[in-house]
Fold:
Amino acid sequence: MQKLPSISDIGNNAWAALMFFTRLPLWRVYQPPRESYKAVVEFWPLAGWLTGGIMALTLYVSHLFLPYTIAVLLAIIARLLTTGALHEDGLADFCDGFGGGTDRQRILDIMKDSHIGTYGVVGLIAYFALLFMSLVGLSPTKAVFLILAADPFAKMLSSQIVQMMPYARTEEQAKARVVYRQISTLSAILLTVQGLLPALLFVLAVGVPHNWQWVVFVPCIVMYMLYRLMWHKLRGYTGDCCGAMFLLVELSVYLAINIA
Structure:
């Protein structure tokens, strides 16, 4: 029988997630136990409330006195500063590794290399171009509430690979020296609530999208296809894989909602 976590454990794990997935100086307030960092993926969507909230707030405020295209750029930059480009670094490494690697070990070696290659540069350019254009294609109000919903939702979906695959490296080989633990039943429920509550807010504020089937199912398909690619190439996942999956799943939400 699984041991239920205490309120203190949940609080430590949530705080560790906010520290791990952002560059905000939260460590000055409190430093949770090291063991809590193995559970940060369980509160990844909660971190999305913060990163998505900062991005959405930046977009809303800046579009009041700046052209909308500039406001979108500022919103993207705001999240990059908040996270320290953590996930974008993972996407670049993922593109380099899977683009240039010929076997499992070579892919892992390339992803661990701190230098960025051609595939990484092209991948980031394509990602940011699509992200920018997909947000510009929406009204400011719709974009604000969609950002609030898409960030946690994509993190909720992406976190499933922790259950579906083993970690591809050892804890000593991991960049952050952390291997995420398996998600318990209670943690899965909390994870789902974190991921779906902002989506409810979007529905209440904007309404149900007429193409809601695309918005729901396309991200799930993207997540599954990336899972299959990682399983085929690595038989596991890495932190870079998690970051890349989150960004691509989130991007698919923005692209799907633009479908006429």
